[in-house]
């Protein structure tokens, strides 16, 4: 009787030990699952971070490539032609086969082309390395160009100087606005026979709007063949999803309106 009780007690102890072992094994199994899950999540997180950084590097490389292509195109279009003209005029002036008056005219053109080339190089450097993301640096550059050009010809220049400070623009948007502005102002100075040039920039319907207007002789848009300057203005805004409209009536001045989505 006592022996049977001891055997039963022993069996109960063995059963308890087995149950404890099973519970411990279950706890260890759960811990392994948690550890494996944590390591898996950690691996996925590291892989995700690596993928995000790789994409960021790829985007940065694409931006750098686009910037290099843009610089190359600007150097070719804006500077290359002027340098070629300077070289040819210098060769002709130094050949000794032209009259003194012709030489003076050629040297005057060389001076003019050199100034234009310096200005264009300054524009390219500014486009590569702007001072800020807001419109402050663009405003200052546009104002300086407008007043320098107008003062040299005794023309009144007006610039709306407040709107740009509240508008944040990307570098492509700044570049397009500035080059459209320069082309419109240069056209007014060359062809409009104007006494006043007004530049206004505002934010309208999620777009930035540039208006360059003059009170010159105007022209009939239907009778004027669009040259590279007018086409460039339209193409620059179109590339950014915007538009450039040229409104003019003979004898009533000209308005160039360019809108670029923000």
Structure commentary:
This is Signal transduction histidine kinase. It comes from Pseudobacter ginsenosidimutans. One of its GO terms (molecular function) is protein dimerization activity. It is built from 5 helices and 5 strands. The chain has 262 residues and is of the alpha+beta class. The protein has a domain at 132-262: Histidine kinase-like ATPase, C-terminal domain (Heat Shock Protein 90, 2-Layer Sandwich). Strands 1-2-3-5-4 form a 5-stranded mixed beta sheet. Helix 1 runs antiparallel to helix 2, helix 3 (136-152) packs parallel to helix 4 (171-191) and helix 4 (171-191) packs antiparallel against helix 5 (228-239). The longest helix has 93 residues, at 2-94. The radius of gyration is 36 Å and the shape is elongated. The relative contact order is 0.07.
Keywords:
262 residues, alpha+beta, Heat Shock Protein 90
Q: Which fold name corresponds to the CATH topology of the domain at 132-262? A: Heat Shock Protein 90
Shape: elongated
In the CATH hierarchy, the architecture of the domain at 132-262 is 2-Layer Sandwich
* Count of extended strands: 5
Oligomer: single chain
Helix/strand class: alpha+beta
Number of helices: 5
- CATH homologous superfamily heading of the domain at 132-262: Histidine kinase-like ATPase, C-terminal domain
**Strand portion:** 5-15%
What is the typical, i.e. mean, pLDDT?
79
**Sheet having the most strands:** 5 strands, mixed
Order of helices and strands: HHHEHEEHEE
Domain Histidine kinase: 74-262
GO molecular function: phosphorelay sensor kinase activity; protein dimerization activity
InterPro entries: HATPase_C_sf (IPR036890), HATPase_dom (IPR003594), His_kinase_dom (IPR005467), Sensor_HK_TwoCompSys (IPR050482), Sig_transdc_His_kin_sub3_dim/P (IPR011712)
Keywords: Kinase, Membrane, Transferase, Transmembrane, Transmembrane helix, Two-component regulatory system
